[in-house]
Amino acid sequence: MKLSVLDQSTAVSGHAQTDAIADSLALARHCDALGYHRYWVSEHHHSGSIVGSAPEVLMAAIAATTSRIRVGSAGVMLPHYAPLKVAEQFRVLEAIAPGRIDLGLGRAPGGDQLTAMALRPDHELPGEHEFPRQLGELLGFLEGGFEPDHPFSRIKVSPAAPGGPEVWLLGSTNFSAAYAAHLGLPFCFAHFINPAEGERIAESYRDRFQPTDLHPEPRLAVATTVVCADDDDEAERQASSMRLWRLRLMTTGRPGAIPTIEEALAHEYSPAEQELLVRQQNRAIVGGPQVVRTRLEELVDGFGADEAVIVTITHSHEARRRSYELIAKAFDLPSAN
């Protein structure tokens, strides 16, 4: 089983948002040394807590300062952009780190509807037909898949390279899974967003997968939240910040920066909030190294996945580094011995 990282570049209370970007760069180098397979960064807009708004820029810095780990987006929100420009950006990234670039694609806005309008030159919200069209164009630019009579078949994306980024579709519903299956692309399911239907969606993806020369078999990853510490009690303590932040996200939509542990432990949860937290418990794996290993293996086996992509949100950057370190040791990753 491969282990990878999804970094949402979360701002924490008491620190500048720019510190979150510096922390992402440092964590990427740390996870590269620990033996993780991929390091993916997310795209969000107009957020007070998730501040990675330009994954392709952050990827360039990570790719230039790491040596082994694959570097990718989770994901580029394709409805905001011209497919040709995305293809060009990721060709440049491939030139920076040949054979190490992943292009993870999503169709969610990564923010509110007003921000989604502001991101588009025409200030129009995309229709449902836009994503399939854009996806087809992007694959055409990257893989030369346009029909000879298509006007875009004459466009050559630069820089030219023998390989290209590995394209993944990302999602928390069957929509992206169905497109990934139809196009023969790898798919990553966002279990940390929608834990209820994941195994059914994963099974549907495998059943409907159309093999291609590049991907003769379905490839499935599952992304889930994990907080690991030296023992279960400390893991629960570290996870308290993330739980209060998520509660605020679910109830207000504007959760702000990740709160401190002290703020989280002092929060007086109402009965309704307590019930909401209980319903959300299966969205995260929290515990010491052995608990985390067991539950991660159970999750990946249940999905029939090849890979776990780990999202860790804590107030302390050192606690987050330690979490990934303990998980690497628990799974005996090559560089963690």
Q: Give unreliable regions as ranges.
A: none
Percent of residues in helical segments?
Answer: 40-55%
What's the name of the CATH homologous superfamily? Luciferase-like domain
For the biggest sheet, the summary is: 8 strands, parallel, barrel
Tell me, rounded to a whole number, the average pLDDT.
Answer: 94
Distance between the termini: 17 Å
Total E-strand runs: 10
Number of domains: 1
What's the level 1 CATH class? Alpha Beta
Sequence of secondary-structure elements = EHEHEEHEHHEHEHEHHHEHEH
**CATH architecture term:** Alpha-Beta Barrel
Percentage beta strand = 5-15%
How would you sum up this structure, described in words?
It is a single chain. By secondary structure, the chain is an alpha/beta fold. The chain has a single domain, classed as Luciferase-like domain (TIM Barrel), CATH 3.20.20.30. It contains twelve helices and ten strands. An eight-stranded parallel barrel has the order 1-2-3-5-6-7-8-10, surrounded by eight helices. The longest helix is centred in the C-terminal third of the chain and has 21 residues. It is globular and about 65 Å long. The mean pLDDT is 94.
